[in-house]
Design goal:
Blueprint: H1 26-29, E1 35-36, E2 40-41, H2 44-47, H3 49-60, H4 68-71, H5 74-95, H6 98-127, E3 131-135, H7 140-173, H8 181-190, H9 204-211, H10 223-246, H11 250-258, E4 261-266, H12 269-283, H13 301-316, H14 319-324, H15 330-345, H16 347-356, H17 365-378, H18 381-393, E5 403-405, E6 413-415, H19 416-429, H20 438-449, H21 457-479
Antiparallel strand pairs: 1-2, 3-4, 5-6
Length: 480
């Protein structure tokens, strides 16, 4: 059997025809073992249905009046997620064998889901122990500074961590202003999405790429696109907010001026714990030795260290700090409930793309950029990234100029220009809708709790269509 036990914490090869066949066992492979045609699962069209249904549920059920409240329960989300995952496993067990179902679970859960959710959980818990309180004068420059700082730190503490850390003090600063919607919208654009471009811990799609073998520091080469888009959007925001500031009632501005309180940071020790998470992700890779040594981290050591840092944060952070942040586990529980199903149901489409990605006719970085981005807008950007990553990987199987060698046990090669297009499309265009990236809805919910009348799903898309799409076109013309 092909390596049944990949190093845990690393992505294994997607389940395919070879997964259950010895390398020399060609007589067996000649029979119908549930697969055909270079590793494409048998009746794969049926096998992809649970994945499509789960993504449609995530996109549509929160919007329908009849299901929106039912869908708010993480128990119901988990039931849908696990139910569709079970259908996928029945598909594998029926058309392949029980071994096929077990291999799908092994690849999806220890290979990707556990490292993924442990990273998000540790960042969520640790950043929830940092409280920034205060009320500055809500000028365009102050507001732009909040968003600028969030954009800078999002790559280092994650878009979720940066969003949760800064959205409340930004809303507190602007509580006396009438025109606040555009500020929250640009916050989502930059802090909840684009800011997370530079490191794998910045945004979930990039972390999945890291698990697939993309070198940890490779994403730093995207700094030009990150800086260009960030600068344009900050400039547009500052002009927009300056115009809206001039329309505020003098009495509101006077009240805002008299209520000022300096910013206060509490729970600062958690900043050190966040640094610990960065080092754990960068250095504790089970598939390669610790830099400068011949020692390899044992399976799941990275995840255990991150979990330990989160536990330490809970132990040493005063309860009042988390209370000030209104900290709870609802948002991370939502991600955990949905992604356990996503990672299992996506095994069939990933296997199809591994075998036939070259047949899609996608050849240029621009094509990957726009297609990954458009689908990331309406589906979740993390699974969308993986689908197109698998497609791009199928187009090249040898080293050379302009090729990124994937590290770890899975190995492989991918064209760098295509990887750039996929990474930028997934991270940037996750900002196009509320459902493109996890923090988007979280920020919207917090803003509404604080009295901001946020636009509807399609109302938000008017903002992104008018502001973001022209900027994305410029990125394509200048960099891809």
């Amino acid at each position: 059997m092909e390596q049944a036990a990949q190093p845990f914490g690393e992505a294994a090869a997607p389940p395919d025809a070879e997964s259950g066949v010895e390398e020399g066992d060609h007589d067996h492979a000649g029979h119908d073992h549930g697969h055909h045609d270079h590793g494409v699962p048998h009746l794969w069209q049926i096998g992809t249905i649970p994945f499509v249904l789960l993504l449609l549920a995530i996109a549509i059920l929160p919007l329908l009046r009849s299901t929106m409240h039912w869908w708010e329960s993480n128990t119901n989300r988990l039931a849908v997620s696990l139910g569709l995952a079970f259908v996928t496993l029945v598909y594998y067990a029926t058309l392949d064998s029980p071994i096929g179902a077990l291999l799908a679970i092994e690849h999806a859960i220890p290979g990707e889901y556990v490292p993924f959710i442990m990273l998000l959980f540790s960042l969520y818990v640790i950043s929830g122990g940092i409280s920034i309180s205060g009320d500055l004068k809500a000028t365009p420059t102050v507001n732009a500074s909040f968003i600028f700082v969030g954009t800078l730190i999002a790559s280092f503490i994650g878009t979720t961590g940066a969003s949760m850390l800064l959205i409340r003090p930004l809303l507190e600063t602007n509580r006396d202003r009438r025109y606040r919607v555009h500020t929250v919208v640009f916050f989502i654009f930059l802090v909840s999405n684009i800011g997370g471009t530079l490191l794998p811990i910045g945004d979930p799609p990039l972390f999945l790429g890291y698990l697939k073998g993309v070198p940890f520091t490779w994403t730093l080469m995207l700094w030009k696109e990150w800086a260009f888009l960030g600068a344009i959007l900050l400039a547009v925001y500052w002009v927009w907010d300056t115009i809206m500031f001039s329309r505020e009632a003098p009495s509101d501005l006077q009240r805002d001026d008299t209520r000022r309180r300096p910013l206060r940071l509490r729970g600062w020790v958690n900043l050190l714990l966040l640094v610990g998470v960065v080092f754990a992700v960068a250095l504790l890779d089970p598939s390669k030795p610790l830099p400068g040594t011949e020692w390899n981290a044992f399976p799941f050591m990275r995840e255990l260290v991150m979990l330990g840092l989160a536990g330490l944060s809970l132990a040493i952070t005063p309860s009042g700090v988390r209370a000030a942040n209104r900290f709870n586990y609802h948002a991370i529980a939502e991600v955990a409930a949905l992604f356990v199903g996503i990672f299992i149901t996506m095994q069939v489409p990933l296997a199809v793309l591994k075998a036939h990605g070259a047949d899609l006719g996608l050849e240029t970085s621009g094509q990957f950029y726009w297609l990954t981005g458009i689908l990331s807008s309406f589906l979740d950007n993390a699974p969308t990234y993986l689908v197109f990553f698998q497609t791009a990987e199928s187009l090249n199987d040898a080293p050379g100029d302009g090729i990124v060698a994937l590290t770890g046990s899975a190995g492989g090669f991918i064209r760098e220009d295509l990887l750039i297009g996929i990474s930028l499309g997934a991270v940037f265009m996750g900002a196009n809708t509320y459902i493109g990236n996890g923090p988007n809805f979280m920020v919207k919910s917090i803003a509404e709790q604080e009295g901001v009348r946020m636009p509807s799903f399609f109302g938000y898309m008017i903002y992104s269509g008018l502001v973001l799409v022209p900027c994305f076109l410029l990125v394509h013309l200048l960099f891809l």
